[in-house]
Write a structure and sequence with these properties.
By secondary structure, the protein is α/β, with parallel strands linked by helices. It is about 25% helix and about 20% strand. It has ten helices and 18 strands. The chain has an eleven-stranded mixed beta sheet, sandwiched between helices. The protein has a seven-stranded mixed beta sheet with strand order 13-18-17-12-16-14-15. Strand 17 and strand 18 form a beta hairpin. Helix 1 crosses helix 6. The termini are far apart. The structure holds threonylcarbamoyladenylate and magnesium ion (MG). The site of threonylcarbamoyladenylate has 27 residues, from strand 5, strand 6 and strand 10.
Length: about 350
């Protein structure tokens, strides 16, 4: 299908038109507080197939379903005596918001949404435009991030239009996504075990706190980001994900290369666009081709909000060969979600500044 995207301000008429499009098996670019989604009504298999075609995404990657209320979610899940109280406490605390819960699906949920598996991931977005659209459409909306598969997630309407520039698509403009990285994804197994599948704004401690307050005992597992699972449980676990078109490296604060690393290429700093954090390399900002700080005052929320936008800005600039991203600490809980996106964007590669040279490993 060829055509072109159209960005609309979210007037009541535009929201009605977008709801009409969803109910007629067309796709809609939907703003959310995390990132923009590429939405399809869950009862329209042709539209669900188009989501995979637009994104060039493999069918085994399940889609997140967006709902207005917890009640809508309970009719998609098939919960049991172990999982129901856990899910109930979590949605009552965190919805609407950036928490996706994955649990066993009702048989009626399309295989396209489930990625062929037996579970469905659901979240209730907080963004007022997403909520108005869900209400007008009267049906849950499956929406992966509205970017080409493997590319940087979109945090503005224009990013969606850029990735799908040759596709017909109504995009509702909901301004900048205020969180800026994708939702936390938590899987609730049938036996009540909880598994963190993707780090996000809602952290492990927040989740454990809710369980404790509700007197719910559940085992919990999560991975420190940077250790990539051999068995892929979802697209967020592919190594090359969130990657800009220009190759990226994580810039180490160490001034010498630790054992186990070797220099593959030496560049000048002038060949690099540097995205910094907390002014670590501010004294050398003039040496880089371009320099921006994700958050001068070391706010991790601030860094999350601007990371994807900055990656897209740098990849659209010419004159540099590589993008440098700040190396954060994967063992600091509040840094894990942003570390995870930076690690994937750079495919885990590290760079070191030694004297006037930039050593790429
Ligand atoms: O913030 C977000 O979650 C955004 C906005 C649009 O809501 N959506 C998003 O979707 O990031 P996507 O498709 O780009 O990422 C989907 C993630 C994957 O990491 C995948 O592992 C997980 O959700 N996921 C969804 N359904 C799943 C399922 N049934 N089983 C396992 N993982 C699932
Ligand atoms: Mg995505």
């Amino acid at each position: 299908m060829t055509g072109f995207p159209k960005i609309c301000m979210p007037t009541p008429e535009a929201i009605r038109a977008a709801a009409h499009a969803l109910n007629n098996a067309q796709l809609v670019g939907m703003p959310t507080e995390t990132v923009y989604g590429l939405g399809a009504a869950i009862d329209q298999d042709a539209a669900l197939e188009a989501v995979f075609a637009y994104k060039q995404r493999p069918f085994e990657d399940p889609l997140i379903v967006h709902v207005l209320t917890a009640q809508d979610a309970f009719s998609l899940w098939n919960l049991n005596a172990k999982t129901r109280p856990l899910v109930k406490a979590l949605v009552e605390t965190f919805w609407p918001g950036p928490l996706t819960l994955v649990a066993r699906a009702q048989d009626g949920v399309s295989r396209l949404v489930r990625g062929g598996g037996d579970a469905v991931g659901v979240r209730s977005p907080a963004h007022p435009v997403a909520r108005a659209l869900l209400e007008a459409a009267g049906v849950p909306v499956a929406a992966p991030s509205a970017n080409l598969f493997g590319h940087v997630s979109p945090t503005r309407a224009q990013h969606v239009a850029d990735d799908f520039h040759d596709r017909p698509l109504l995009i509702l403009d909901g301004d900048r996504s205020t969180i800026g990285i994708e939702s936390t994804v938590l899987k609730v197994d049938d036996d009540g075990h909880l598994r963190l599948l993707r780090h996000g704004a809602i952290g492990e401690a927040d989740i454990l706190d809710v369980l404790k307050k509700n007197n719910l005992a559940a085992s919990f597992s999560s991975k420190v980001p940077g250790q990539i699972a051999k068995k892929i449980e979802g697209p967020g676990q592919y190594l090359r994900h969130y990657a800009p078109h220009t190759p990226a490296w994580m810039l180490s604060r160490s001034e010498s290369m630790p054992a186990g690393y070797e220099t593959r290429e030496i560049l000048t700093l002038e060949a690099a666009a540097c995205l910094d954090f907390a002014q670590r390399f501010a004294a050398r900002r003039k040496d880089f081709h371009s320099y921006q700080d994700l958050s001068e005052d070391a706010s991790i929320e601030g860094a999350a909000r601007t990371l994807f936008q900055q990656l897209r800005t740098f990849e659209n600039q010419t004159g540099h060969q590589v993008i440098l991203l700040p190396e954060l600490d994967p063992h600091q809980p509040e840094q894990q979600a942003v570390y995870d996106r930076i690690f994937r964007a750079s495919e885990g590669k590290r760079a070191f500044i030694m004297g006037r040279e930039l050593h790429l490993s």
